[in-house]
Design brief:
alpha+beta; Rossmann fold; Dna Ligase, domain 1; D-amino Acid Aminotransferase, Chain A, domain 1; 3 domains; 5-stranded antiparallel β-sheet; 4-stranded parallel β-sheet; 16 strands; about 35% helix
Length: about 300
Amino acid sequence: MKIGILSRNPKLYSTRRLVEAARQRKHEVRVIDVLRCYMDITAHNPVIHYKGEELTGFDAVIPRIGASITFYGTAVVRQFEMMGVFSVNESVAITRSRDKLRSLQLLSRTGLGLPITTFAHSPDDINGLIDEVGGAPLVIKLLEGTQGLGVVLAETKKAAESVIQAFMGLNANILVQEFIKEARGSDIRCLVVGGKVVSAMERKAAPGEFRSNLHRGGQASLIKITPEERSTAVRAASTMGLNVCGVDLLRSNHGPVIMEVNSSPGLRGIEEASKKDIAGMIIEFLEKESQERKSTKTRGRG
């Protein structure tokens, strides 16, 4: 197979591991910087050019699209799809998962556990937002934030009002969520490949920090998840239409609640914690699915 890995940086751990796993299985693999691609959108003959050459002959692509380039990156994925190339995660599913509000609305429709979340446009509704999530402490999130950036814990009502007013004053779209105290600064990352949880790790926040992201100093360790947590992760991936994703859960007093579904999950933390060849599992899935489905077909709704 000829596989394209859509990544801006070939030196990133996840990109390198996918390249290694593909080559170990005797596939031809190439790392493609999506921002260096340009597209010829012509009837009956969609084409992608890369650094002056035409990209042809690919059987499949693995998108590793960063949040800051979602719009252009998914346009490139969509162009590959129009050319009949199988994509591990479809463009529409990536776009869907990157919209935090849309994701939560879709997940809530399927009855999956979520933290109480509110969203509003007018500063006049701030007290209502705070009351709906049970008051302070509460969490305020920028819709465009990633890796823990743009996430604020407001420990008092006054602090919450000030932060919300500041964000609204900047015309920033925010979510206000209940703070799950019983999670104690830890969450669970479930790695889903092909409708199965292939590994799970617990991430604990660094001292003095409430965000458990590894990029923010969090520590990862292998964890055994419950059948309910496993089912929640699989259903969340299916709802988003993602074949490969990381589903972040919190253990609350009323069961697992979903914080986020990540369409480009990092592999370093989960591979180091589990000692599993997650990259190899992704390539194996790709081999099987690309043979069965020569082109992508949108799954999930919304």
